[in-house]
Amino acid sequence: MNINCIVVDDEIPAIEQMEDYINRVPFLKLLASFNNGIEPMSFLQSNNVELMFLDIEMEGFTGLQLIKSLRNPPRIILTTAYDQYALNAYELNVTDYLLKPISFERFMQSIDKVFDYYMNSGGKESSGLQYKRDYFFVKTEYRMQRINFDDILFIEGMKEYLMIHTTSDKIMTLQSFKSMEESLPANNFIRVHKSFIVALNKVESVEKNRITIGNQLIPVSNTYREAFNIILKNS
Fold first, then answer.
1. Of 113, 155, 187, 233, which sees the most CB atoms within 10 A?
2. CATH architecture, range 149-234
3. Chain-centroid distance, C-alpha 99
């Protein structure tokens, strides 16, 4: 599965950083990089580009001028060291607006928006975009950790942190339950308690108000019991 993308920036270090980030994401395919705003115009006309990382301030022909010159632009993520262009970005309907220096965590938040657009919002079809992602990234300590959905047993709330229990590890991340639920496939993960989300395909038994997953007993609260029972009956 591929989302074809290009990088347009007049600073070589910025191009190299974007190329590095793109190469870390399996479903992104880098087609080309450009250090000016003119060359991408002909490339976009003759190639299937689905995502463009675009610097705003470039000599000769700016990123904003490039956008305005395109009749059918791809999804665009603007990259800039200046925040005064946010309104322009909103008016041009770009997918996201990244302020340099750009962290990998912030980069991945933008990629999730692009992925959701093509998967759920009627984006243009391509053979590569029929793939269903089976993992996500969370920030833990000082790195971004990849977690396969199928490895997750359950997720436990611990004050402002979440503990992700997997088949081989326990991963702690600073994240809200709401954002976690939005990251997980709804067909296999359900909240059963204010402090627990469980993977339905890992549930071994259900007895009254308790779920067994491995050697762990997980409570089902009154708030979530009805929805949980309905999903169990229909699964």
1. 155
2. Beta Barrel (2.40)
3. 17
